[in-house]
Amino acid sequence: MIALAREPSPSFVNALSEHPGKGTIDFARALDQHRRYAAALRRAGVAVEYLAPAESFPDAVFVEDAAIVLPRQAWICSMREPSRRGETGTVMEALRKYRPVEVLAPPAYIDGGDVLNVEGTLYVGLSRRTNREAAEMLSRRASCPTVPVAVHAGLHLKTSAAYLGKNVLVVDPAKVETAPFANLRRVEVEGDESANCLAVGDTVLVSASSPRLAKRLRDLGFDVVELDIGEFEKADGGVTCLSLLIPG
Hints:
Layout: E1 2-6, H1 27-43, E2 47-51, E3 67-69, E4 74-76, H2 88-95, E5 101-103, E6 115-118, E7 121-126, H3 132-141, E8 146-150, H4 157-160, E9 161-165, E10 168-171, E11 185-188, E12 197-200, E13 203-207, H5 211-219, E14 223-227, H6 230-233, E15 244-246
Parallel strand pairs: 1-2, 4-5, 7-8, 10-11, 13-14
Antiparallel strand pairs: 1-15, 3-4, 6-7, 9-10, 12-13
């Protein structure tokens, strides 16, 4: 597996965010956290390929939002936020080495963080960043089933839902519709912990701010790696947001 990643640039301190701590983002700390994150991916057997930092785009570190990658095809997302639309060019260039690439164009707006792949079925979050037109367009173009999911709170579907394999879904039922996931074993997060986690084989990367979730996943037999990503959480980000996985 390959992961496209992009280290934060100094402009990251101006990233879009509704987090109360957004004004305290520390660039040096974010850079260190990102490098530890990339090291954790490598230890899990993932080859990390870096895109150039993008000083003109404060949110470009969140590369997951720029594209949707399936086994035989990839799509570049049409991002609703005007300040993010220039991020996709370098992602497209990198993806073309591994997949045929198409572009999802307005009026279909979508972020990759709203697309959750569960064993070949795409669950598409209907959020502030992703509209029904995009979900319908992806349904027509993808050679797999797609299921719309209402996002009640939070930025993206994958902010509050993560598929780990083994029929296990981590979810925050206060933030996303859960009925579409009725056939999965649900692990519901508690309190203010984050459901955003990243599974690579039997390894699951979890935010260090979610220790109870980490324990529950270990009890289920997963190899859990807890990572401090606090600076990215101040920008409404999580562990999935920081890489774009390309299965081999």
